């Protein structure tokens, strides 16, 4: 990957930041397939995100951040994912964990975390996988001590900070804390070697005697947690991150299919209505028209969800109601199921119109399906359809869980 020095003026508007993300995507796209196959730790890729200013997009302006909205952040994730789905995922997860203090923390904790990561251009990872056993937290007076193992920890070795989540062994209370990634008590397993999203550093992590002051336990005051409905926006926020980088991957797949067809696909000479070019073939035009229309529809739904959720995330935390939260979650569930179905269709059907030669490994059209198929298994999409169905049929809002 050829890195770039961003010497031009810093973006000043949301539209300019989205253009910056497109520039980053163009750099990533030049060798995305080769880097996928090498499956190396993406140090240079994260450095590119930092140099471009995208890491501090949501950070406060007083500390050098862009102070942008989540609506912009979602668009940025989408654009980066068009260049490389893995790096789009890394950036989207970073945005969630960078916002974690706002989701759960006290006013003082929010200020400290945002100054730390924004002022130092730090990158977040997270060791929070609800399907594993919880990390166990011992209360040792003024300190908490985290111990345990997680089978997934997106960000891994490329992160500067890691979000830990565990359960107090005495009370059973859940605690989030932000800790330096590079420390003796955290060992990343280097065991992420999956079908797709290969550069996300999503392997296991071993946590051994990681000490955190009680003052850093997010949302706790005098060892008591102060809950808000706003705390439960973490899952809708990350689920919409998923939808946006799925969309970026699907958009890239369609664009790659269109480009290949225009440049290299040969017309079929035995159809009885032979054409001089594949771009004149009826079945080719029909397929691409169908896929483009479906992708535009998914994009519209995702953008609608982004506008709604961004409004909630940037409102006063105390003002969020359970109904607002629930209706946003339903809309995001609808958006996610649509882009999964559409993205998998796009990334598969492009082979029907590009032709047999497009299956060559040197072409690499398989990367889009592999990336979408891998991460879309994060949680069963059937449950997203059920959430929408219960809302439509019964008027029921989904209860907040680790996946809703």
From TrEMBL:
Gene Ontology BP annotations: L-leucine catabolic process
Organism of origin: Saccharopolyspora antimicrobica
GO MF terms, alphabetically ordered: 3-methylbutanoyl-CoA dehydrogenase activity; flavin adenine dinucleotide binding
UniProt xrefs under PANTHER family: ACYL-COA DEHYDROGENASE, ISOVALERYL-COA DEHYDROGENASE, MITOCHONDRIAL-RELATED
Pfam families, sorted: Acyl-CoA_dh_2, Acyl-CoA_dh_N
Signal sequence, start to end: none
Protein name (database record): Acyl-CoA dehydrogenase
Domain Acyl-CoA dehydrogenase/oxidase N-terminal: 25-110
Stretches assigned to the Acyl-CoA dehydrogenase C-terminal domain: 240-378
Superkingdom field: Bacteria
Entry-linked Gene3D superfamilies: Acyl-CoA dehydrogenase/oxidase, N-terminal domain, Butyryl-CoA Dehydrogenase, subunit A, domain 2, Butyryl-CoA Dehydrogenase, subunit A, domain 3
Entry keywords, A to Z: Flavoprotein, Oxidoreductase
């Amino acid at each position: 990957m050829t890195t770039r020095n961003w010497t031009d003026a810093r973006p000043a508007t949301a539209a300019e930041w989205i253009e910056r993300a497109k520039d980053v995507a163009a750099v990533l796209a030049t060798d995305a397939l080769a880097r996928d196959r090498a499956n190396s730790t993406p140090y240079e890729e994260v450095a590119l995100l930092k140099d471009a200013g995208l890491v501090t997009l949501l950070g406060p302006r007083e500390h050098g951040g862009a102070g942008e909205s989540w609506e912009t952040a979602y668009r940025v994730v989408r654009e980066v994912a068009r260049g490389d789905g893995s790096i789009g995922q890394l950036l989207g997860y970073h945005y969630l964990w960078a916002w974690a203090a706002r989701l759960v923390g006290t006013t003082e904790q929010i200020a400290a975390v945002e100054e730390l990561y924004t002022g130092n251009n730090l990158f977040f990872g997270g060791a929070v996988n609800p399907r594993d056993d919880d990390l166990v937290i011992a209360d040792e007076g003024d300190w908490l001590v985290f111990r345990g193992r997680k089978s997934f920890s997106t960000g891994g070795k490329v992160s500067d900070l890691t979000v830990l989540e565990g359960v107090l062994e005495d009370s059973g209370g859940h605690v989030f804390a932000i800790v330096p990634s590079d420390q003796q008590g955290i060992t990343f397993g280097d065991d992420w070697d999956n079908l797709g999203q290969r550069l996300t550093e999503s392997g296991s992590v071993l946590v051994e005697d990681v000490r955190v002051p009680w003052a850093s336990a997010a949302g706790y005051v005098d060892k008591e947690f102060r809950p808000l409905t706003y705390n439960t926006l973490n899952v809708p926020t990350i689920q919409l991150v998923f939808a946006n980088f799925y969309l970026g991957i699907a958009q890239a797949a369609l664009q790659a299919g269109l480009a290949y067809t225009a440049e290299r696909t040969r017309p079929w000479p035995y159809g009885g209505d032979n054409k001089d070019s594949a771009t004149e073939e009826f079945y080719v035009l029909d397929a691409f028209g169908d896929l483009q229309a479906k992708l535009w529809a998914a994009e519209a739904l995702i953008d609608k969800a982004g506008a709604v959720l961004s409004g909630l995330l940037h409102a006063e935390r105390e003002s969020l109601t359970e109904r607002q939260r629930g209706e946003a979650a339903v809309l995001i569930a609808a958006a996610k199921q649509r882009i999964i179905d559409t993205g998998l269709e796009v990334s598969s059907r492009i082979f029907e119109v590009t032709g047999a030669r497009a299956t060559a490994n040197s072409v690499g059209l398989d990367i889009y399906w592999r990336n979408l198929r891998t991460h879309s298994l994060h949680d069963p999409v059937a449950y997203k359809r059920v959430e929408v169905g219960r809302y439509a049929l019964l008027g029921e809002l989904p209860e907040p869980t680790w996946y809703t």
